[in-house]
C-alpha cells in the first residue's frame, strides 16, 4: 500500500511542482533547498502513514513553512558583530603595542609579539582575529567564534591548523619556541 501511495504522491508532486513553488514563494523568497527538504519530509510521511494524507498541498506548504521558521530561529541565534567589532579590537592591539617597552619584555613576550606580527602579515585580518580570540585573548571555543562570525567550526579549525603549521614550519619562530619551552621546562 505504501508503494502505491508513494507512486501517487510522486505523480501528484510532478503535476503540482510549479504551483507549489508559486504558493510557497507568496510568503517570501523561495528557498530551493528547503523546498526539496519539504518534499522529502512529506514523502517520508506518505510512506509511513497508514491512513494517507488528506490534503497534500496544505500539508506540503505547512511543512515548508515550519522548516522556514526553524531556519529563521537558527539564523537568529547566529550573530555577527560586524566589522566595527574587529576594528575596535585592532585599535586595542595597536594601543597596547605602543605602550610596550622592549627592555621590559621577556623572551616569551618577544616571541608572542613576533608570532602576532607574522600572522598579521601572512593571513587575512579575519583569520588573525580568529586565531587571537582562540589562542591568546579570551580562549574562546571554535564554536563560540563560529557563532559570532557565521563560519562553520570545521572551517575555523582548518584555518587555525594551517596557521599553527605555518608557525611550526617557520625557521626562526619554531626554533625560538622550542628553545623557550626547553628553558621553562628546566
Walk me through this protein's architecture.
With 186 residues, the chain is mainly α. The chain is built from 9 helices and no strands. The protein has helices at 2-25, 32-48, 56-77, 83-99, 107-122, 125-135, 142-149, 153-169, 171-185. Helix 1 crosses helix 3, helix 2 (32-48) packs across helix 3 and helix 5 packs antiparallel against helix 9. The longest helix is centred in the first third of the chain and has 24 residues, at 2-25. The chain is elongated and about 75 Å long. It starts with a helix and ends with a helix. The relative contact order is 0.07. The mean pLDDT is 79.
Which structural traits does this protein have?
mainly alpha; 0% strand; 186 residues; 79% helix
Task: Briefly note the structural class of the backbone.
Answer: mainly alpha
Percent of sequence in beta strands: under 5%
Mean pLDDT across every amino acid position: 79
Question: Judging from the principal axes of the Cα atoms, what is the shape?
Answer: elongated
Largest sheet: none
pLDDT < 50 stretches: none
- Radius of gyration (CA) equals 27 Å
Q: How many helix segments?
A: 9
Q: What is the number of strand segments?
A: 0
The sequence of SSEs as H and E is: HHHHHHHHH
Secondary structure: helix percent: over 70%
How far do the termini sit from each other?
76 Å
Amino acid at each position: 500500500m505504501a508503494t502505491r501511495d508513494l507512486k501517487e504522491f510522486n505523480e501528484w508532486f510532478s503535476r503540482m511542482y510549479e504551483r507549489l513553488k508559486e504558493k510557497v514563494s507568496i510568503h517570501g523568497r523561495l528557498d530551493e533547498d528547503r523546498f526539496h527538504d519539504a518534499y522529502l519530509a512529506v514523502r517520508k510521511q506518505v510512506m509511513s502513514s497508514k491512513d494517507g494524507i488528506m490534503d497534500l498541498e496544505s500539508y506540503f506548504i505547512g511543512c515548508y513553512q515550519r522548516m522556514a521558521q526553524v531556519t529563521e530561529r537558527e539564523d537568529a541565534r547566529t550573530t555577527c558583530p560586524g566589522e566595527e567589532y574587529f576594528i575596535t579590537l585592532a585599535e586595542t592591539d595597536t594601543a597596547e603595542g605602543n605602550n610596550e617597552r622592549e627592555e621590559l619584555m621577556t623572551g616569551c613576550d618577544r616571541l608572542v609579539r613576533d608570532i602576532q606580527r607574522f600572522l598579521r602579515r601572512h593571513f587575512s585580518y579575519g583569520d588573525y582575529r580568529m586565531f587571537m580570540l582562540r589562542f591568546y585573548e579570551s580562549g574562546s571555543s571554535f564554536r563560540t567564534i563560529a557563532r559570532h562570525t557565521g563560519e562553520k567550526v570545521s572551517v575555523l579549525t582548518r584555518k587555525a591548523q594551517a596557521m599553527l603549521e605555518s608557525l611550526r614550519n617557520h625557521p626562526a619562530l619554531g626554533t625560538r619556541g622550542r628553545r623557550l619551552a626547553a628553558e621553562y621546562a628546566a
